[in-house]
Write a structure and sequence with these properties.
about 35% helix, about 300 residues, 8 strands, globular
């Protein structure tokens, strides 16, 4: 039986981020308590919200460095939260750094959450935000041919699905997809998905997230590949990819398999697996493994953006 071996630094700190299985009984409580605190933002990046769907509360937030002129590449981001929690505010600090460091415009999307809105609602929200970004590229100050997408956890799952949907619809060309520990397989059939006592995101919480997102589809063979990207049979024609995941993450095996299949389909793909890193390793930013995880991810992003210049 596969066992979890945490990085020694994280093992000493894991008590600081308690793990709690989610259920419908206290979902509202968890939503209200997270995130506990957002970091202070600089004045070097301007932020503006744009309505995508007023009736459903879908907006995109555009992040642009103050004084940046001309059209530049765009990174479109989808926040995590197991499909059931989170907000685009979670991307503010990331874009406060990325926009300044890389001279880009960042766009983050506020999509509807499950179970109140099950698939395909959240994905369609993400697509609508992407389409608005593309259609209004001139006003936003971006090059519509230089858009990449990224997401973490469930945001990574939505990101992978968005890449598939954009390929199929043929309306928005994407240049890359950065999939950070993506949540992409509802079946939970891999060895890592059955690990006990996982940090941050347990197998029980994972099942609950998928049940909320898929609704009546959960547990059936009728789950579309745009709901769970691991189910896609054809991965050809997708943008260049980066996949990163921890070795002590329940998503480890499904992410490794997906990366290998992307590469097999002719998609240039870089895969990084970090032994001992749990899901949400970024919650332990002071550790060496979290720093390495972030540095490799941003090095790849920097190379992608350099390619687009």
């Amino acid at each position: 039986m596969d066992t979890v071996r945490l990085d020694p630094e994280i093992e000493r700190l894991e008590h600081l981020v308690p793990t709690r299985d989610l259920s419908a009984d206290f979902l509202a409580e968890i939503r209200a308590s997270l995130p506990v605190q957002f970091p202070e933002l600089s004045d070097a990046v301007e932020r503006s919200d744009h309505v995508v769907d007023e009736a459903n509360g879908v907006v995109v937030r555009v992040h642009r460095p103050v004084g940046l002129e001309g059209v530049v590449p765009c990174v479109y981001s989808i926040h995590g939260g197991g499909y059931i929690r989170g907000t685009c505010d979670m991307d503010d600090a990331k874009f406060d750094r990325w926009c300044q460091n890389y001279g880009i415009v960042g766009v983050s999307v506020e999509y509807r959450l499950a179970p109140e809105t099950a698939y395909p609602g959240p994905l369609e929200d993400c697509y609508a935000g992407l389409k608005l970004t593309y259609d209004n590229a001139a006003d936003i100050g971006i090059d519509p041919k230089k858009i990449g997408i990224t997401g973490v956890s469930a945001g990574g799952g939505l990101c992978a699905a968005l890449a598939l949907l954009a390929r199929d619809r043929g309306e928005v060309p994407l240049q890359f997809q950065l999939l950070d520990c993506p949540m992409i397989d509802d079946r939970q059939i891999t060895p890592s998905s059955q690990l006990e006592n996982l940090v941050i995101w347990t197998k029980e919480t994972n099942a609950f997230g998928w049940q909320c997102y898929l609704g009546d589809l959960y547990g059936t063979d009728n789950v579309p590949y745009t709901a769970a990207a691991a189910r896609a049979e054809d991965l050809s024609g997708l943008p260049e990819a980066y996949v990163c995941v921890g070795g002590a993450d329940g998503f480890r095996d499904e992410d490794i398999i997906y990366a290998k299949r992307l590469y097999g389909a002719g998609v240039p793909t870089e895969l990084h697996v970090y032994p001992g890193a749990p899901h949400g390793v970024g919650l332990f930013p002071q550790t060496k493994i979290a720093k390495r995880y972030a540095a490799h991810r941003e090095d790849w992003l920097m190379r992608q953006l350099a390619r687009l210049r």
